[in-house]
Amino acid sequence: MRTDQVAAQLRKLIVSGTLSPGQRLSERVVSEQFEGISRTPLREAFKILAAEGLLTLEPNRGAVVTALSLPEVEAAIEVLSGLEAMAAEPACDLITDSELAEIETLHAKMVAAHDAGDLMSYFQINQTIHQRMVDAARNPVLSRIYAAECARIRRYRYAGNQQPARWHQAVREHGEMLNALRDRAGPVLREMLRRHHKAGWVVSRGVLEETLAAADVSTASTRQQRRSATASKRSK
Fold first, then answer.
1. CB environment 197-230: b (16+ within 10 A), e (fewer)
2. Which residues pair with 64 in a beta bridge?
3. What is the pLDDT of residues 178-219, one digit of tens each?
């Protein structure tokens, strides 16, 4: 249980961007932050996040927040869009009333989180809704691949919702998708999902490009400061 709790907290920090791509996680520092958690459950938590693709376990460096390039993220988005499109029609044909009711309940909670300005809760519920729609297609291989790829790029998809206009629009799109699911309109849902992913990625890409540009400037500044400090020492 302690391992799961630490994994959940670290997952939130990675997804929200509090822990940056490429950042190394010191076992000692993380242990102190989580009230002295012992090394074994902490390492198990790292392994869980590594399996999800959020951390990379490197020799001599330990756990590092996984950094993906924009082309890698874009390729993953294309795959996710294709998987959801593949699931749309069978999901509409096979979804049960109880499964639809669960998605309706999740949708209501997601809207409430949006109205409360709780982006993290909104995002987590949002991801669950997408997974439930895919699961309704009754294809366990499809569900497994979709879940794994979603986990790997979770923090990059979160970035798009940080733009208020896109966040509001995404909520409206989810309402329309829910209506298509209620109507068992598979082709309609399929096209809605494609547009939903495309619109989200356009915004996410812009946010990520700005973040990467800022990181490059910061890195260049740090390197220049180090060079200046080294040159100053040599001149003395």
1. beebbebbbebbeebeeeeeeeeeeeeeeeeeee
2. 24, 56
3. 999 999 999 999 999 999 999 988 888 887 787 666 555 444
